[in-house]
């Protein structure tokens, strides 16, 4: 008979059983589920709601089940619907009567909420570590190639020269914001739902504060109905994941372009590319393409979960069982994407000569020519127009700005003199951009230093999170 079968006279339809079951995916919550149950049982004993002997039997029984699942010596049953009932049923089979007391003062509604909170807390640390490693790989690349010059683009048209390190550090900034987002996600998951029961609280003298402390939650839900129906932290996690993927996807697009023959700015390591089954010469940036391609499903998970939630009356509704698959999929793909990317950045080759040569024959220094005139007293708008005419002239005569003679230049403005040649050098264009967030070597080095400070803070944060997550391991082992 089903754990909830008392009021039923007929068996569940087989198709309904399959459709209703979540064990096919929520088995992944077994550690969290067992941990939550152990602490719940400990609390029931402390509050003298169950006897110490029953408590002990429950705890030892649950630990055994944990080991069995870990050793893949546990058969999950679809008839038992989900991870919660699979474990509870097995417990009762193993220890008898006492197992039936575990669910006192608890509902699957607050149970699954607790499991998911613990799970999100766990993966936040896991993903945080990978994000940190990716950020570190970016700072390393920026330092390794700190003075490599490349064209900077807007509209994918050459705009102004920049340092490659500067370009890469822009991504560092994005991922650093993602880490801050992750901190917020964790904060929202850091609230303990047990004690809410099905929706209204329970009639037993539960000690939720003790449970929260034991599991190292910093807060308890204020409202039992919110506790069992809040999935905001799930949506936030998915939004975080979607944002990271959007950033990775942009980087992917750059790497795909840069590794084409047209750009040839970078060469990805063979280990991160694949060949073609027909064209022997091909080396394809599949990883970048896959990351870019997978970004879509992350957006889908955000939309799917938000939409699943939008019409739900309080409190728990079975719709919410749909919150998990998106999260698991996001975790799996994010873990892959982040870790492969960090490796790929560490191993890719930067073709510095190609980057520099791309600037040999173009107009990326046009703004600098205008700035030169401004420094000679010409209003910027006018300087802009003068340089525009010079560019026009160059295009007609197949030249670039630094190939114009002083005579040619003075025909556009008498303010040009000898020193214009130095001002137009690409190296000068870079060196002049000394603003706080600019592309000069000094500014970029300072940016790197700030980046390293960010990494150190993130590391501290992760150490705290990991220490808290180890409490869960200690409880189940
Ligand atoms: N498998 C369910 C889920 O993931 C657990 C909660 C079920 N609660 C209930 N009242 N049927 O949401």
Automatic annotation (TrEMBL):
Keyword terms of this UniProt record: Amino-acid biosynthesis, Arginine biosynthesis, Cytoplasm, Lyase
EC number: 4.3.2.1
Gene Ontology annotations for the cellular component aspect, listed alphabetically: cytosol
Keyword hit for ATP-binding: no
A biological-process GO annotation: L-arginine biosynthetic process via ornithine
GO MF annotations, alphabetized: argininosuccinate lyase activity
Reaction it catalyzes: 2-(N(omega)-L-arginino)succinate = fumarate + L-arginine
Functional pathway: Amino-acid biosynthesis; L-arginine biosynthesis; L-arginine from L-ornithine and carbamoyl phosphate: step 3/3
Subcellular location(s) of the protein: Cytoplasm
Enzyme class: lyase
Protein's UniProt keywords contain Magnesium: no
Domain of life: Bacteria
Pfam families membership: ASL_C2, Lyase_1
Domain Fumarate lyase N-terminal: 6-300
Ranges where the Argininosuccinate lyase C-terminal domain occurs: 363-431
NCBIfam families listed in its UniProt record: argH
Family assignment from sequence similarity: Belongs to the lyase 1 family. Argininosuccinate lyase subfamily.
Identification of the protein by name: Argininosuccinate lyase
Gene source species: Megasphaera hutchinsoni
